[in-house]
Amino acid sequence: MKLDSKIPEGHISEKWTNHKNNLKLVAPNNRPKIDIIVVGTGLAGASAAASLGEMGYNVKAFCFQDSPRRAHSIAAQGGINAAKNYQNDGDSVYRLFYDTIKGGDYRAREANVHRLAEVSGNIIDQCVAQGVPFAREYGGMLDNRSFGGTQVQRTFYAAGQTGQQLLLGAYSALSRQIGLGRVQMFNRHEMMDLVKVDGKARGIIARNLVTGEIERHSAHAVIIASGGYGNVYFLSTNAMGSNVTAAWKVHKQGALFSNPCFVQIHPTCIPVHGTNQSKLTLMSESLRNSGRIWVPKKKEDAEAIRAGQLKPTQIAEEDRDYFLERRYPAFGNLVPRDVASRAAKERCDAGYGIEANDTNEGVYLDFSTEIQNKGKQAAYASGNHNPSPEEITRLGKKWLEEKYGNLFTMYQKITDENPYETPMKIYPAVHYTMGGVWVDYNLQSTIPGCFVAGEANFSDHGANRLGASALMQGLADGYFVLPYTVSNYLADDIRTGKISTSLPEFDEAEKRVKDQINSFLSNNGTKTVDYFHKRLGLIMWNKVGMGRNEQGLKEAISEIDALRAEFYKDVFVPGSADELNQELEKALRVADFLELGQLMAMDALERNESCGGHFREEYQDAEGETLRDDENYAFVSAWEYKGPDISKEELHKEELKYEYIKIAARNYK
Fold first, then answer.
1. Which of 39, 96, 106, 363 would you label with 568, given CA atoms 20 to 30 Å apart?
2. What global pTM score does this model have?
3. Fold category of 504-633 in CATH
4. Residue of 337, 342, 465, 564 marked catalytic
C-alpha cells in the first residue's frame, strides 16, 4: 500500500489557502441530498456536525453519553493556544508552528501543523462570537498565559474550565442545527462497526445502549471524532467511558493506524492512592505557571515525609530540589510534558518521592512563592507599599483563587488537603494519545469517505503534544478543515441518491456485531471485565509506559497475547443483549483495547529511538535526555490490519520531510 498524504505544492504559508481555492464544492441546493455521519460529539465532532449542518447537509451525530455536553472535551482545564500575539511578546503563526513541531520532537507532518497554526486565531474569534467567557485583562482584552514548551503567552483560557466552556459553545451551535432539523442526534448510541460499500465508507452499525437494539445507519461519508485511547492503561485522566472502539473498528476495515506508541504522560496529576482506584485526576498544566515543582534534596527528608513524620512546609528552602529549574533553566517548570514527566520519574526512582503510596511516587507543586510575589504586587497596586506579611499572604491567596480557584477546590475535595497552605502532591499519569488513525492532508483515512478528526487521528502532534493544543486541533478540524475537505469528497456524490441499509454489506456488518455480542453473553467465564482490563493496564504501564526497553516490550507483546486468549475464554458478562448492559459495553471495548495494546508494544519495539513520549531506555544521552535517530526513524508508522493475529499487522512508513524547520536536538536548557 502506497501512502499518499496529498500535501499540496507551494510554500508552506500558502499551501492551505491554495488548496482550499482548488477544492471541489457542493452547491447549496445539492447539500440536502447528501447524508453525513459524525461519530463523537466532543469539540471535533460537535464543531464538525454543527458546521456541516449549517452548510445544509443532512447530519447524523452519535455519542454514547446521555448528552453531547458530557463528551470528554469538557474535562480540559488549562486553555487553548492561538497565535494572536496579544501580549506583544514575539508570537506569530510561524512561532506556534515551530513550537509545535519542536514540542512533538520532530515527528509531526509539517503541512498539517502549519495549517493548525494558521487557523488558530480564527478559532478564538469563532468562540468569542459564541459567547465563550475567556478571561480578560483589566483593559478588556483577552488574557493569555504560558504553557509548557513555549516562551510566549498564547494560551487563552476560562479559569480552569476552558474545555467545558468551549464545548458549551460548540454544543450551542450543534443544538441550533438539531432544532432546525439539519442534525439528527443519537444520544446513548455506540458505533459498533463501519460499513463499506464498493470500498467506500457508507455507514455504521450502532447499538442503542438503553434498549440494546442494533441499528443500521447509512451515509455518503463518515467522520470519526471519538477521542483517544488512553484508557488502554486502565488508569488514566480520561473519562471512564472513553475508548478506542470506533477508531479500532475503522482500522479493522482497512484504515491504517499510526504511531500507536506515542502516548502522552501528563506531569501534573494527583498520584495513585490505592489498588481499587478506577481513574486519575488531572491538575491543569496552567498551574505550572504559578507553582514550582520540587522534592527534598535529602533522602531522609523524603522518607520522613512518606512516614508522616515531616511536613513539606517544614523543609527549608535550601533543602528543596527544584529539579526542573535546576535541569532546564531556560524553561524551568514550563518544559514540555514529556520532559517534566520523565524528570519527576527520575527523582522518584532515585528515592526522593514524597507520596506514601505503594510505589512512593509523587512530587510537590508548591504555590508559596507565587503567593508572596502576587501578594506584594497586589498590595503595591492598591497603594500599600509596606504591607504586613499577613496582608501579602491574604492578597496572594486571593489572586490564586481568582486564577485557579476551581482547580484548588477540586484538589482539596479529593485529597482533603488545602493547596493554599501545603503544596499539592502530583505525579505523571496517562493523559493524551498522539497516535491514531492515519489521515492525509484532507483528514481522510485510507478508506475513501472515512474522515477522522481530533484526538482520534494522528496528524498534528508528533511524539508529544504541547499543552493547550488538543482543544485547538479539535476545533480546527471541525470548524475550519472538514467543511472544505469533506465537501471536496462529496462533490462526486450529488447523483448517488440515498444509500440503502438493505445492502448485503450492512447484513454482513450487523452479523459481525451480533456474533461478537452473543459470544460474550454465552461465555461461561468466571472473571469480570475489569479484572482483565486492570491486568492489561498493569502490563501497559510497567512495560509500555514512561520507560520502555526491548526486553519489556517483547514480554508485553507475549503477555498481552496470552491475556487476550484468557479474556475470551474466561470473561463473564452477565445480563442480556436487549437491555442496558454496561458490562457488555465494557467487554466490547476491552476486546479492542487488548488488540490495540499489543500493537502499541509492537510499534514501540519497532522504533529504536527515543522521541517525545516514546522513551526507549536504550536510547538516551548521558543526562537522560531522548536520543532520536533522524536518519532511520523520521517517519510516521502506519499499521495495516491483517486479521485477528495482531502480530501479523504490516508496517507502512510515511517519510517526514522538513523543508521549513531545521531538524535539531530538542534543548530546553
1. 39
2. 0.97
3. Methane Monooxygenase Hydroxylase; Chain G, domain 1 (1.20.58)
4. 337
